[in-house]
Amino acid sequence: MERIRTSELAQHAGEQVLLRGWLHHRRILAHVTFLVLRDAWGTCQVVSAADTSGADDITPESVIEVSGLAVAEPRAPGGVEVREAQLRVLSPAPAGLPFDLFRPTIGAALPTVLDHAAVALRHPRRRAAFQLMGASVAAYRTALRAEGFTEVFTPKIVATATESGATCFRLDYFGHVAYLAQSPQLYKQMLVGVFERVFEVAPVFRAEPHDTPRHLNEYVSLDAEIGFITDHRDVMALLERVVGAMARAAGEHAAAPQAGARLPIAVSTAFPTLHFSEALELLASRFGSDVLAEPDLAPAHERWLGEWALRTHGSDFLFVVGFPMQKRPFYTHPDPARPTYSNSFDLLFRGLELATGGQRLHRYEDYESAMRERQIEAGPFAGYLEAFRYGMPPHGGFAIGLERWVQQLIGASNLRETTLFPRDLNRLLP
Amino acid sequence: MERIRTSELAQHAGEQVLLRGWLHHRRILAHVTFLVLRDAWGTCQVVSAADTSGADDITPESVIEVSGLAVAEPRAPGGVEVREAQLRVLSPAPAGLPFDLFRPTIGAALPTVLDHAAVALRHPRRRAAFQLMGASVAAYRTALRAEGFTEVFTPKIVATATESGATCFRLDYFGHVAYLAQSPQLYKQMLVGVFERVFEVAPVFRAEPHDTPRHLNEYVSLDAEIGFITDHRDVMALLERVVGAMARAAGEHAAAPQAGARLPIAVSTAFPTLHFSEALELLASRFGSDVLAEPDLAPAHERWLGEWALRTHGSDFLFVVGFPMQKRPFYTHPDPARPTYSNSFDLLFRGLELATGGQRLHRYEDYESAMRERQIEAGPFAGYLEAFRYGMPPHGGFAIGLERWVQQLIGASNLRETTLFPRDLNRLLP
After folding, report:
1. Residues of B in contact with A185 (CB under 8 A)
2. Which of A279, B310, B374, B428 has the fewest Cβ atoms within 10 Å of its own Cβ atom?
3. Which residues are CB-contacts of A391 (< 8 A; sequence separation ≥ 6)?
4. How far is C-alpha B270 from the geometric centre of its chain's CA atoms?
């Protein structure tokens, strides 16, 4: 008999069925034992007469095979249960899990949950978050491919560490100093000269010793870069379309309710936009005029602006554009009308920076002067600068933090909850 | 006017059109100048009357905008050309490219080509290889998602380096020794306990000081792992389906002829399979009986077996199964009938190892004894072993080398030709 998935059980009412999965939960009553079998697609209830099938001896998380009759039963979750069950243990588990998996949430502190990732990730609610992650990434790629983007793969071991001021991990590369790439920025720009439109989904590495719920030292960056734009507004429009596609895919996924996903409001309309200087004015009214001197937004400011966008525009999203040039990397394109401000933006999702992007410089001379002004030695960037020397169109792009996307989607309070195996100051295992 | 792509020109014959791209080539005749404009989708011919448009002064690789009349012209490549052209230079390029891009191939040695990647990758033939790469990866993911696989993202900074004997890059992680992951092997197995079927597309890192045309120190690995298998043959069947999907996607891509892709023979049928011991017998008849003592296949042996598969089975593919346990990593499942051989395999594509895979151990006790036998300290693997302690089904998986796939597809003699920015013993730039 062919194995069916728990999600297919309802279609097989009245038939003999074969299921495989894990023993998720067990309740032993006087004359009957109720088992819950969990597979990758859900759970189902299995009813076993006491003492006939060995069901009472099977421990949670044992891998089991169940054959029996699928019977419509309104009281069973999903409306169908398996009766007259024959059970076979494929892989037994010992008693004494680090925590129960059958309860609505795991009753342990986050560090314990992360220490026992191999078990904790099996919890349906935790698992569901990563199913939404996979679906979101698929939608990201599909949306970009439909617009003519080429997927690229750029090196993570790089020779230079100074592109944006972030701290990089250093390694010994056959006797040379090398670094782990903090972003594919330089490569995706070079590749605009080849493919015009490129995207990459890959890990990025930051050696900053942050210890906050919103930072990790390794995360997945959804990068895109597009040529022949007018300015950053073309990039923002692209980002709106892409985020819309991701939200729809997550919303339609069967795991969305299980993950506790709260779908974004107003994702299908143009996102409200504030200039950085306007954002500071608003913030000054709340936090006092000291903020007017700030060159960047603090996390508390982002949260407040997120609330403002929801209150004022009914949107979970807010673009802040025109960050001061002084805090942006050397490749940032200035606003031609107000050159101390840039053609760059952040996208806030429920008050957290989800994405950053903008228009880049594209003329070779502009790179020469930008690097001279910032006292960046051009030598190590020769291969990058060659792209601009030999004809580059106006272009721009963005980078979305994948784990933050899922974090905000499900309302997790810590980025570690939406990272399979997080890497932080204190965590390198499992 | 809306910009059109060169690939759309034929649909617009008789209309005014606007194109943007790079000046790919220019021929100045007495009364007329022929330009070739290149964009991400192809090239088109632009005809400009002498001295009226400034066409004669534009240098190759300048970014240009062309507006004019699309006219059917049988002698033009693609059957349509642009006449009465108005030209505008968006980004000029200086004279003196490192090599010509308009010739059928780049007339420079590979190191020069790689040094000037930003320019060399613009060559239509080089670029096309990476368009096939992108299409192949998309097909890989689509095939697996259709079979219920979840895409996962696992850390590349890891605490242990001993999983398979490969040499790892070391880095300092906030005062701790860490390594760059040589594969997602341990994580994808742990995640079979969560999602049953997982895949990952991500960079892997090998610190081996190889200096060959078939090794790189960073490459993209297409990994998959599947639970509830009978044995390695289920994994091989999955790999056949996936490789078939990749071949079809590459074959249908518009860039396939440009890349010089030669599509695999017999990709839609079951691949021929040789047991390792049979392979050695065959090799002994050609290379002498010394090979019978070998625990692995040498590159020359793989090449010969590839020719044998084509000659004998009319197939570009060959599975070699049953490699001796002694050369395989600790998680390898032995062949129950002949325990010195393993349930693992290599897939050769035109005589080159394209993928490796097999069935894994799934019982906790088997891991305990395998690690004891190989004198591997269990401590650093505690988080991994927990997955097996708490119920893991029989499972297996494979890893495909993405750059090798494209290399063999287009018949490139060096893996560096199918890597955008290769990393090897001597190359860390660009």
Report:
1. none
2. B374
3. A193, B22, B23, B61, B62, B63, B91, B92, B93
4. 22
Gap between the Cα atoms of B369 and B239, Å rounded: 29
Report domain extents, chain A. Answer: 6-91, 118-418
Global pTM exceeds 0.95:
yes
Q: Of A60, A69, A64, give the one whose Cα is nearest residue A13.
A: A69
For residue A388, give both structure tokens.
């601009």
Nearest to A182 by CA among A134, A212, A144, A216: A216
A93 contacts A26 by C-beta, under 8 angstroms:
no
Q: Which two tokens stand for residue A126?
A: 């935790």
CB B191 within 8 A of CB A420: yes
Per-residue pLDDT reduced to its tens digit, A372-390: 999 999 999 999 999 999 9
Restricting to B residues 205-264, those with a Cβ less than 8 Å away from any Cβ of A are 205, 207, 209, 217-218, 220, 228
Measuring CA to CA, which residue among B410, B406, B310, B395 is closest to residue B351?
B310
DSSP state at residue A51 = T
pLDDT digits 0-9 by tens, B378-412: 999 999 999 999 999 999 999 999 999 999 999 99
Q: How far is the alpha carbon of B50 from chain A, nearest alpha carbon, in Å?
A: 24
What is the arrangement of strands in the sheet containing A150-151, beginning at the earlier edge strand? A150-151, A197-205, A218-227, A395-401, A352-360, A344-349, A317-321, A273-275
- B42: Cβ–Cβ under 8 A, 6 or more apart, which residues? B5, B6, B7, B78, B124, B254
Write the burial class of residue B410 (CB in 10 Å: 0-12 exposed, 13-18 middle, 19+ buried). buried
Looking up tokens 């069973």, which residue turns up? A76
CB-based contact A428 B157, cutoff 8 Å: yes
Q: Note whether ipTM > 0.95 here.
A: yes
What CATH number should be reported for the domain whose range is A118-418? 3.30.930.10
Closest by CA to A97, choosing from A111, A110, A109, A108, is: A108
**Phi, psi values for residue A241, rounded to 5°:** -65, -40
The dotted CATH code for A6-91 is 2.40.50.140
Residues of B in contact with A137 (CB under 8 A): 151
Residues 275-334 of B with CB under 8 A from A: none
Type of residue numbered A95: A
